[in-house]
Amino acid sequence: MEALITNLVGKIALVTGSTDGVGRLVARRLGEAGAEVIVHGRDSGRGEEVVSEIKADGGKALFFAADLSSLEEVRGLADSVLQHAGRLDLLINNAGIGSGGPGAARRTSAAGHELRFAVNYLSGFLLTSLLLPLLKTSAPARIVNVASAGQQAIEFDDVMLSRGYSGGRAYMQSKLAQILFTVDLAQALKGTGVTVNALHPASYMATTMVREAGVSPWSTVEEGAAAILNLATSPDLTGRSGLYFDGLQETRANAQAYDSRARERLRAISLELAGLSSSPHQSQSGQHQS
Length: 290
Description:
Blueprint: E1 12-15, H1 21-32, E2 36-41, H2 44-56, E3 60-65, H3 71-84, E4 90-93, H4 115-137, E5 141-146, H5 167-188, E6 194-200, H6 208-212, H7 221-233, E7 244-246, E8 249-251, H8 260-274
Parallel strand pairs: 1-2, 1-4, 2-3, 4-5, 5-6, 6-7
Antiparallel strand pairs: 7-8
Helix pairs in contact: 1-2, 1-7, 3-4, 4-5, 4-8, 5-8
């Protein structure tokens, strides 16, 4: 894993959902490589544990708490980063919640949005939008969206899944939404020095999310971290954007990700739900299929 990372001294990285599981390991590896790591999670105690671990390894880190089911807390997280950091070289949107297991009930965020869509997708959309000016001034910079091989086409007539709900369906739709956003954003960021890519890190890693779903782990968090760090730091990805990886292998996502009309519809919905009057990053023209 270490071979993927050279020297990140002077760089600043934000890893959401980095108090547990694969995000925690990614944060520690980035710290070992010299980056200053902004650790994020909901639990301050666990956050400070990760910060202490990174510092014990000789790195620099600090913790910001935010519940990503709340768009107000997402905005607060962005404000904290902007106040603290004079630059941002790497944003890894890793935080998420799983399917909830068989028979999971439909839940909503404080704003009334379907919870998995809100946490897994909409929070990252808003956070990225708010931090993009800082990423641009820090270019070359990278955005990594941790998605999943579990993908289901978005039902635009019922994005919040008020009918025929299942936790699995909600999870897969939210993860595909991340990939549509990745492809869409990559088009708008051409020429800025900021790249954005998405991946499925590994199947059923030994994480809290997988255990809560009642699934026996198939792979390790080390495998997943290696895949995330590949997109975050590999020289082979320099200047490459709008891609989807399964582990370490570039591949194709669900066909809807490459439908420019679907991406435009998702963008419009996302701007409205996130309370953004206009997109801070998207060009309204030049959207084309990849």
